[in-house]
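Note to self: user wants both folds in one dump. Writing first protein now.
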Amino acid sequence: MGRLTRWLAATVAACAIGPVGAGAAAGFDGFGDATADSTYDDEIRFEVKLEGSAPDRLELLLSTPGGEGSFVTPVEPDRGSATYEWDTSVEYVTPNTPVTYRWRAHVDGDIVLSEAQTIRYEDDREALDWRSAQLGEATVHWYGDAEAQARRFGELTAVGVERAEQLLGTSLAGPVDVFVYATRDDFAGALGPGAREWIGAVAYTHLRTIFMWLEGGSPAYLEVAMVHEVTHIVFHDATDNPYHEPARWLNEGIATWSEIGDAGGQRSIVEFEAAGGGLFSFEAITQQFPIGERAAELSYAQGTTMIDLIVDRYGPEAIARITAAYREGSSDDEALELGTGIPADQLYADFYAEFGVAAPQPISPEPIGPSTVDRPVAGEVDPGGVDGAPGEPPPDAAPGEGSQPGDDGAVPLLIALAAGGAAAAVIAVRVSRRAARRAS
């Protein structure tokens, strides 16, 4: 009877194991529901259900506008599902960024992809009770008591778009979002760690989004700033190409010129600096503008005044020819020549001649003098155990000599290495912060 009981138990166990083994043999059977949600300045959370058993390898693919390709990260499945958390409190993401995601499974050498979906990363901070209205091509978002000003910005967006389309010979490629922030803290919290303290408005052209700060200036200034920022978006559409960004001075010059349709007070800034011999080479302000307020102001002024010169001498249609050349993949110099009919070097020379100064010349670096560092006497630095045990003084050293902690040999070297590492960290942070914002 005991043997029969054991046989029955074994049979039941075998029947119980059978279906599980069959399911495992079936393997991965595709993706179920895939979802995503976000909390601003905290995280974006992605989840997916897995049918059947887990794949050999599972990955999440993420992409955002303006990015090159997709970010791919491995994700470990857990009991029929998988979760990935993007920590946006550490890795800053601009509000209103659409994040496209899809899951990828590797199964026996084959690849299975889920359908691509998109989540929009919203500034959903608790104190911001956003409301929205669509005004022409713009959707304006505001909170608190800012409705009247927000609607005015929406109207100005239409004015700026029409003016920029006429100048650039193109059409706005899609809708624009405008977010109006009431306080500096709210505004700065949206722009992230790379924002400069003097910014009152900013356009993220790849997101087709403009952020405004109501306390960033007088009502008249903010209205002009709105036209400036929306011109950046039209310029982006007019010059969009897969090769390179247009010259920064051209982008900012066109946006500033479009505010009132001429150089205005920008010319007097250039005249003042030219009298002191302080104009920039245009090559120096092609990639980025200087951080200092005075230097940044001159960069804007030179760009605006150059646009005024081009329009005055070659007609407004020259600007449209320049932007069309960028769309076809021209370099900066090629685009300027196709627009004006003269080489870029001649255009620059004409600009400086307009203000009675010679074109800026490269500054030769000063030669590096001989080192003034006192080098340690041979034998004072630990030879690393070549002639003795690690950490021991060299055989010919007197008692107390050598490279023990606290001596003058190894410690200065460690301090120098630490200082070098700190400097590298500071440089990396500064470069990262400069890259965080592409347009202002």
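First done. Writing the second protein, which came from a different request thread.
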Amino acid sequence: MQHLDNDCEALVVGAGGGIGSALVKRLLQDTPVGRVWAASRTPRQASLAALADAYGERLAPIHVDVADPDSIEAMAGDLRARGVRLHLLINAFGFLHDANDSIWPEKRLEDISVEGMERNFRINTLAPALVVRHCFDRLNHGERAVIANLSARVGSISDNRLGGWYAYRASKAAQNMFTRGLAIECARRARRVICLALHPGTTDTGLSEPFQARVPAGKLFSPDYAAGQLLARIDGATEADSGAFLAWDGARITW
């Protein structure tokens, strides 16, 4: 990794999830980054505790509930109070269905619900926007910095050939629009900040588990593999790439 050195600090929001925890581990294991702030609802969970034992103060767990705007603002305030300067912010969380299946991807128009739409937009669209809003001053310091929002290919309007999944598709498309608009604003007021929408591919996590039977052989990735590919895309991105929607392998996805 050419851009992350021991003077850099990274924030991974959603560090308790499959891809998020793999990103934290990869950043600690494969880069000399000085500190990784691992933000989750349960910052003392076993996976992060094990990493803390291995990497000491390079790992800094921090609490956030991405469904709560006040919690997001408090997390950013904590970082600000500590004088943290970020060179990487990854929003590595998302919502598709809940644990008791009361919210599920829609197969037809009649399946749309207020609860499903609200939950998808709160987590997939509003939360990433608020994280960036409140952490932006930690990234706009004149040095290279990357904001990476984990998106999904199904959020591409032009690539939608199957229909369905209304709430998830729409919320990810809205998130993509936010990332694109953010890149345009950064080009005017924060030129060293690179903004990316990243598709990790279908990854073996709880989010995709109910739908993995339909995944072609060789196309279901481990969280560790997905994390490595995403960090390669982040490390290789230039200011000319800001506002791009990139797949795990570097291919550009149309909006």
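Dump finished. Worth passing along: Strands lie at 9-13, 35-40, 59-63, 88-91, 145-150, 193-199, 244-247.
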